[in-house]
Amino acid sequence: MHIFKKLVSMLKRSRNFGVALFLGAALVLNAAPIYAQPTLAELRAVLKRDPDNRQARWALSRMAYQAQHYEVARYHVMQLLKNSPSQADVNTLSRALAKINSEDPWRFRLSFALRPSDNIRRYTYNDRFETALGIFTPSGAGQEQSGIGSTIGASLSYRFNLENAAELTVIGRIDHSVFDSGDLNSTRLFLAARHERFSVGRKTIIEPFLRFRLDHDFALERRDVGLNAAVNLFHKGGHQLRFSSVIENRSYLDEDALSGPYGRLDLRYDRVLDVKTRLGVGLSVARSLPRGDHLKYWEGRLSIDASRHFDKIGTLGLFGRYTNRQYDGLFPATDLFRADGTIAVGVSYQPKHIKIFGARPKLTCQIERNASNVSLYDYKANDCGFTFHRSF
Q1: In this structure, is residue 170 part of a structural domain?
Q2: Confidence band (pLDDT; 50, 70, 90) for 265?
Q3: How far apart are CA 76 and CA 356, in angstroms?
Q4: pLDDT value at residue 238
Q5: For residues 380 and 321, which has the higher predicted lDDT (pLDDT)?
Q6: Is residue 191 one of the residues assigned to a domain?
Q7: Is residue 297 part of a domain?
Q8: Predicted local distance difference test score (pLDDT) of residue 307
Q9: Which Gene3D superfamilies match (predicted)?
Q10: Distance CA 278, CA 323 (A)
Q11: CA distance 221 to 245
Q12: By three-state DSSP, how is residue 294 classified?
């Protein structure tokens, strides 16, 4: 009786009977339904036509929870939180999310990537390197070095429920990269504690982190300490605006000239054009201040990406970016202040009906061209990548 009194109270306060009914059901996720339940196929059909249908999305989340498909249930509750009309709805959905997290706080994820490239070192394709001391020929006679790199990764996280519609996630991740050229091999470790909080039309994220990189002999070569912060603003009609920043201190154990602080500000806009089409635009500004004067730089980047889902074949994507980097000091042995401009364009494809060990592979290919006034870094590269992700 206590549960139904709460439900009736919510119905009285709500302006929308249907929304209150489904949100009130968050209090009784495992209780027997008090209305005729639609089928899973019917709910999916409704959301396919109208992704903003809150009643159908909540019912699908509830159905997934009862079937112990907790990650699916969590996804749909998170979608509802993005466009909650009131703080009362946010609080109710947060309690439902806390219940899901308490049932399934752990998440384990495996990933694998295969990345062939015709220029794995990003060196020059010019034959000559002009300096104030004369003309030199770069190592390898100025030719690109092709190769294939692969990365195997695993991550483990645990979620804690907090008050005020917030949660804390502790994250650990390891990635190991292997290339044809052994000196490019590396292992990366990432540790973080992510605090997330929802409010009406907004999600804030604060994430302090530690990052370590080991060289091909598994000796520690780099250690970073930093903080990520972000604010996501959600608007009706599929609009999303994200402000984010990162501040970190990079320490290179064997190359002190590379060590120093780094910071970046990002602005990104995402728009759901229709049920199957998405568009995103990003802008960022970064500043790096290593100890070596000729290595300090300002960087600006503009990026755009779009994707379209096709029922029979899967999802196709297009992306492009332009990066401009200006260095502060004279490049060694030259009278040049290094300046780079990088253009990259590419396509991606994720098939709908192909799965490998339960994961759908994604193919990405890009063409990259870096124009630099220092010939050693004036390069071109053609890359492709096959990536797989599987969560448990």
Answers
A1: no
A2: very high
A3: 25
A4: 79
A5: 321
A6: no
A7: yes
A8: 97
A9: Tetratricopeptide repeat domain (1.25.40.10)
A10: 23
A11: 25
A12: helix
Residue with tokens 């999802």: 315
**85 and 227 both lie in a single domain:** no
Are 318 and 312 a contacting pair, CB within 8 Å?
no
Structure confidence by residue, pLDDT tens digits, 34-56? 445 678 778 888 887 888 888 88
How far is Cα 368 from Cα 383, in angstroms, rounded to an integer? 8
Residue 187 pLDDT exceeds 50? yes
**Spatial contact of 78 and 100, defined as CB atoms under 8 Å apart:** no
Domain assignment of residue 333, given as a range:
106-150+199-208+217-391
CATH code, 203: 2.40.160
Q: How far apart are CA 322 and CA 327, in angstroms?
A: 17
Instruction: Judge if 276 and 339 occupy the same domain.
Output: yes
Q: CA separation (Å) from 373 to 27, 298, 330, 367, 376?
A: 64, 16, 12, 20, 9
- Tell me the C-alpha distance between 361 and 387, whole Å: 6
Q: Say whether both 279 and 350 belong to one domain.
A: yes
Measured CA distances, 239 to 80, 125, 197, 279, 307 (Å): 14, 43, 19, 10, 15
**pLDDT, position 312:** 87
- Whether 338 contacts 331, CB under 8 Å: yes
Residues 44 and 121 in one domain: no
Return d(Cα 55, Cα 198) in angstroms, integer: 20
- 């384990």: which residue's tokens? 108
The whole-number pLDDT of residue 5 equals 44
Locus of tokens 């907790």 = 70
For residues 83 and 349, which has the higher predicted lDDT (pLDDT)?
A: 349
Token digits for 157?
């996280």
> Which residues have CB under 8 Å from 198's CB, separation 6+?
81, 84, 90, 93, 94, 165, 166
pTM for this entry: 0.83
- What is the three-class DSSP state of 389? strand
Work out the average pLDDT over 373-384: 85
